[in-house]
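Protocol step 4 of 5: obtain the predicted structure for the target chain.
Materials: sequence only (see below). No template structures provided, no constraints applied. The aim of this step is simply to have a reference model before the mutagenesis design in step 5. Sequence pasted as it appears in the construct record:
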Amino acid sequence: MQTEPIHSPNYSPSHSLMQTESSELEWQWIAFSDMTARQLYEVMILRQRIFLIEQNCVYQDADGLDSISLHGCGRTSAGIQAYARIVPPHTACPQPAIGRVLVTPSWRSRGTGSDLMRRALAQSERLYCGRDIALSAQFHLQEFYGRLGFRAVGSQYDDAGIPHIDMLRVAPSLSAQKFIAMASR
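Step 4 output (structure tokens):
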């Protein structure tokens, strides 16, 4: 029996797997329940390589939120090069949250992180239209996320030995969304 991992009025199994193309990466958004064992294994290896080994950070990556999250991957024939997950609201925090954002070293400084985040924001807005979006940012990336509309909320804190800060991207008002929709016609 398959359970529905995304709790949103806009979610349906037909939306759980979406592929889009970007210059050299193939982008895919997939619900946990639709991931193959191989896809999950590839994601877990990459997250461990980046967060535990590269950043020398000891923490439990498998936090129980993957099974209810939407997973975004940018891949080449060599494997996943960029990844992020979208956690539904009222789980990690009141808002939907983007987390576990990573780009492999060979794909950094090429705009991949910005592309990944724009795609994650678009998916979040599709699933949770009109909702603010949260993330826990490494403190040194505050300016990067700020360019994407996030603002720091609260104070810097330590998360497994790395300074972090909570950030929030306030959703445009419904009247602003209607104006933008009308202007784009």
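Step 4 remarks: The chain has one domain: 13-183. The chain is about 25% helix and 30% strand.
Proceed to step 5.
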